[in-house]
Design a protein that fits this description.
- By secondary structure, the protein is mainly α.
- The chain is about 85% helix and about 0% strand.
- The chain has one domain.
- Helix 3 packs antiparallel against helix 4 and helix 4 packs antiparallel against helix 5.
- The protein starts with a helix and ends with a helix.
Length: about 160
């Protein structure tokens, strides 16, 4: 009987935390040499040339940089969402999620500083943290609005009865 409970707990744990850990692994994979600007230009550059056929090389490099910064923001927004999802049972889940985003952002850039094809940037850390904070804040506000709407509906129901 306890084996079934143990398996169930393991599945719940895996369902909660595996997406977070997998996404952290994806972030670290993207900070390897495979995520360098020269490698991402293989697929980003043709798209930019298609979208901006008259753009010169400097403009294309600028746009490529913007795409890369937006990718930083987006991957950490996803990290923030997955952290909130994994920590839903914790009282201080929002603070813990922000802590995870900050820790991964710094670890990511520190790791990049040891790769010759990559450069570490405090600006990237800021963009990463901003992406995570925006998502975590949005989720917090969504939950707060939902809970206040639920309270309001319950109060109205009580008053109507």
């Amino acid at each position: 009987m306890s084996d079934g409970i143990g398996v169930r707990k393991w599945r719940v744990w895996l369902w909660s935390y595996a997406p977070l850990f997998v996404w952290i692994a994806v972030i670290f994979l993207l900070s390897s040499d495979s995520g360098s600007m020269s490698n991402t230009s293989r697929f980003v550059r043709p798209i930019l040339v298609f979208l901006f056929p008259t753009a010169d090389e400097t403009t294309l490099l600028f746009y490529h940089g913007i795409v890369r910064k937006l990718a930083h923001f987006t991957e950490y927004a996803i990290l923030g969402a997955l952290a909130i999802r994994a920590l839903e049972r914790f009282k201080y889940r929002y603070i813990l999620a922000v802590s995870i985003v900050i820790a991964v952002a710094f670890a990511d850039e520190i790791g990049q500083s040891f790769r010759p094809s990559r450069t570490a940037s405090i600006i990237d850390v800021g963009i990463d943290i901003a992406g995570g904070l925006v998502m975590i804040t949005a989720l917090y506000l969504y939950v707060q609005m939902g809970s206040s709407a639920t309270k309001k509906m319950r109060a109205e129901k009580r008053n109507n009865v």
